Amino acid sequence: MQVFGLIGNPVGHSLSPPMHEAAYDHCGIDARYVTFEPAPEDIGTAVEGADALGITGLNVTIPFKQDVLEHVEPDELAARIGAVNTIAFTDETPRGYNTDAAGVRRSFTHHDVALADRDAVVVGAGGAGRAAAFALADAEASVHVANRTAERATELADDVPGATGGGLGTLDQVRDADVLVNATSVGMESDDTPVPRKYLHDDLAVLDAVYSPIETRLLRDAAAAGATTIDGAWMLLFQGVEAFERWTGRDAPVEAMNDALRSHLE
């Protein structure tokens, strides 16, 4: 039996176990997906222990996505983003990847939204914002980062080829944008939106990384404006799909994983 899992603190809320186990069942893979919750100071020992125990792969979530960098060999994208959310124990040295970026890109692709030569606005300069900004730039979109703290937005923009950054006062750029990503937690625990409704329009595609609730105020406002809307469960799904494919070398059963994920969100 192969063992995969998630390492974070806390992890009790995670929807990754049912999503990945649905994939194993669908593909006839003898595997289980379990969660691990080490103390923050023990992350290095935890990665070494997983390797020693023969665990095949781990997803990584808060607060360890940056901490694990020094314990794995990150690929080029993960190194640029500065965060790892997937580890594969297939080589002598654990390999680190960032599949959050693929989650963003594949979410837009699944909804037939082209990114090349488009103008994109990313709200938020944290981990999700970094992944989104690099994903969009690598897909040849022009990226602007808007963040509550303007300095963090400009620091991220300096790392992303061709990007610009500024405070929330620059959100008016959404009026002329083709793509919008909310990479903040605004809308998760309250019926708030990070982007004023007046900036939304019918030529816009909006991805909200928040998946609980599925229909955030931002997405309701975007739908009312005629925009294409993509809920956060798609990003969660496709980062998991990318991880599954890296671990197994097989095409992921996207429909089975999506059904399992959404059954736990309803």
Describe what this molecule looks like in 3D.
The chain has helices at residues 16-27, 43-52, 76-81, 100-110, 127-138, 150-159, 217-224, 232-248, 254-263, and strands at 2-7, 31-36, 57-60, 73-74, 86-88, 95-97, 119-123, 142-146, 164-166, 179-182, 205-208, 228-230. With 266 residues, it is of the alpha/beta class. The protein has 2 domains: 2-97 and 234-263, Rossmann fold (3-Layer(aba) Sandwich); 101-230, NAD(P)-binding Rossmann-like Domain (Rossmann fold). Helix 5 (127-138) links the parallel strand 7 and strand 8 (142-146). Helix 1 crosses helix 8 and helix 1 runs antiparallel to helix 9 (254-263). The longest helix is centred in the C-terminal third of the chain and has 17 residues, at 232-248. The model has no long low-confidence stretch (mean pLDDT 96). InterPro entries: Aminoacid_DH-like_N_sf (IPR046346), NAD(P)-bd_dom_sf (IPR036291), SDH_C (IPR041121), Shikimate_DH (IPR011342), Shikimate_DH-bd_N (IPR013708), Shikimate_DH_fam (IPR022893), Shikm_DH/Glu-tRNA_Rdtase (IPR006151). Involved in the biosynthesis of the chorismate, which leads to the biosynthesis of aromatic amino acids. Catalyzes the reversible NADPH linked reduction of 3-dehydroshikimate (DHSA) to yield shikimate (SA). Pathway: Metabolic intermediate biosynthesis; chorismate biosynthesis; chorismate from D-erythrose 4-phosphate and phosphoenolpyruvate: step 4/7. This is Shikimate dehydrogenase (NADP(+)).
